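Cast an eye over this sequence plus tokens and explain the fold to me:
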Amino acid sequence: MSIDYEKVIPFYDVDPMRITWHGNYVKYLEEARCAYLESRHMSYYDMNILGYAFPIVELKIKYIHPCHFGQKIIVRTELEDCENFMTFKYEILDAKTGQKLCRAQTKQMCVVMETEETLFEIPEIVLKQLGLR
């Protein structure tokens, strides 16, 4: 299952050439990932209530075409794997033309908040909340 998250590139995210600064793409991925998780009724807040945190342990980004000020984009997000890590893949597309602007992947590992213990499997309760069990 994938979801599409729409966004218009704001002025404060661009450089003097009106091109999105490369670090802001990470913010767009985060916004889209939060929207994905909320669509599955499992926000980061919900994970925290269960006692878990999911820090990013790996990030890969391939910039293909720049995003510009005022451009409407779609961040297509899909949960690719959810066994040892939560692995998301993303495509950033121009909303009008469908042109691929960027592709990315993030991996998140589960950590027990109280003990800071790293888990090497996603807890069953999280999988159930995400609708994967």
Observations:
- The chain has one domain: 2-129.
- The first strand starts at residue 2 and ends at 8.
